[in-house]
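Dear all,

This email documents one entry for the complex benchmark we are building for the journal club exercise. For each entry we list the sequence lines for every component of the assembly. Then comes the predicted three-dimensional structure of the complex as a C-alpha cell string, followed by one or two observations. Please use this as the template for your own entries, and keep the labels exactly as they appear.
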Amino acid sequence: MHNLAAITPLGGANAREDRIGGITIAEKPDRAMASLATRMGRDGDVAKAAKKLFGFALPEPGRMESKGDWAAFWTGPGQWMVTAPFVSHEDIAPIVKAGLGDAASITEQTDGWAQFDVDGSDVVDMLERLCPVPSRRMKAGDATRTSIEHLGCFVLCRVTGESFTVICPRSSAASMHHALSVAARSIA
Amino acid sequence: MIINHPLLGPRDSQEFTYLGDASLIDRPDWQAEDAVDRFYDYLYERENPAGEHRELWFHEQGDRSWLVVTRNTLTHEITNVELARDVARARGRGK
C-alpha cells in the first residue's frame, strides 16, 4: 500500500487561512460531496427517500438545508449537491445511493471542488466586486451558482451579510484564492 | 440586461448564453414523408423581427435551465420568461 500524503486544493498539508483587513478567507477541505440528479418522473420517490436519509426535505430552488452531518443545496431543476463531513462520509456517493436507490443518479464530487469560507462584516463588498449575484440581498440559507473570474462556482450564504461559502472547481483553487485575496485587499 | 429567471428571480445576463429563435424547440419528425423539406425550414428559415422575439437562452453559469425569453429586439425590453421545459410540455412534448 502506498503511503501517500493528502494535500489540500491549494497544495498544502494543512488548510490555508488568510486574514485580509476584516475578511477571513479559509480553505475548507473537510466536506465530502456528491451530486444528486432525479431520474425522469421520480420526483416523488426522491423527495420521500431524501427526507428519510437526510432528515430534512430537499431545499427549494436557490436554497440550502442542513441537519446534523448532512447538508444539501439546490443546483438545478431536480438536482442538488449533497455534502457531509469527509472523516465520517468519505464514501458519500454509495451512502446516498443506498438511501435513494434507482430514483436518482448519484455522482461522487468530493475531489472536484474546492471550498472557501469567507467571513467578515465587509464580505458583501468583496463579493459584489467578484460576481453578479445579489449578495447583499441574499439571506442565510440562500445558495446559487454563478461565475467568479470566469469560473463557474457556487455561492452559499451561511449568515446574512457576514458569512458566505464559495465552492469552485478544485483545479482552479489557486486562481479563485487569488481572486478572493485581490478583492479583499482592494477594500481592506 | 437582467433576465427574470422563473425559479431564481432577476439574474444578470452575463450568466446566460444565447441560442436563437425559440422555434428550435419544434424539431420536425425525421420519419415524416417530407422530412427533408421540414428540416430545411427548421434549420434555415428564420423570422428576423424588429420587435417582439421569442428566443432560447441557457443559464450556463447558473442552474443550467433553458429559458424561452420574449424580448423586444428594438428596445431589449423583456416581457416574459418561461422555462423551456414547460413550453415544450405545453406543446405535448415529453411525458
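Observations: The CA atoms of residues 32 and 89 of chain A lie 6 Å apart. The mean pLDDT of chain A is 96.
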